[in-house]
Write a structure and sequence with these properties.
The chain is an alpha/beta fold and about 250 residues long. The protein contains seven helices and ten strands. The protein folds into two domains: about 40 residues, no CATH class; about 190 residues, 3-Layer(aba) Sandwich (Aminopeptidase), CATH 3.40.630.100.
Length: about 250
Amino acid sequence: MKLPADRAELPGKVISFYIVPLDLAHSAGLAGHVPARRGEKEIVSVYQGTDEMTSPYKNFEELTQQEVEGKDYQISARLRDERVLVMSPHGGKIEPTTSMIADAIAGENYSYYSFDGLKSEGNSVLHIESHLFDEPRALQAVKKADVVITVHGQLNHQEGFIMVGGLHVDLRSEIRRRLEADGFQTRTPPEGLQGIDPENICNRGRLKGGIQLEVSRKERDLLKADKERLERFASAVRQAIQRFARK
């Protein structure tokens, strides 16, 4: 079973995990206990490494009490066609290369937003979960968009693939079709990475249904190293968006 937090960019690797009731997990004193999100099973995980899987911050206001813009994080945004917003809510050093991928998809046609970690280490502390993400500039852009596409990083280093989730079923299918036609491997996301929570930032546009792209670390490394591959990837997603936007 894959953990829902595969994309957290943790150092090391998972060496064991158990599904147990919450009260037993606490009483057993198991290391690396990770609280389940709404609708998910309780997962207890043991990791090699010391970074936490998710941020202790439950909203952006909490984050700003400890983190400094321009030093610990930065926000990049540009407005183009406001109907479509391409986002990297965990960009920079939080989930590496996701900002570059989102920027390539947005291009000069669509609006772009990225929340980037700048720390020399420990950027996972900036990983506000997608259903809690409420940075004000992001929310302003989301409210103007018909559809929001978010780019995330999944941790698999061995295989290159993209998991396509979100509540916009038609666009989700079209993105998968276009990516596969251009030689990219796509997968159905497992529980926890499906992007189907209505509060997920990708689903808060005006249509109440967006897209969540989970790109494996192997695929992100390939895209970073090969500009032609990155453009082919971005073009496939843009073509799917264009078909949707004409409707």
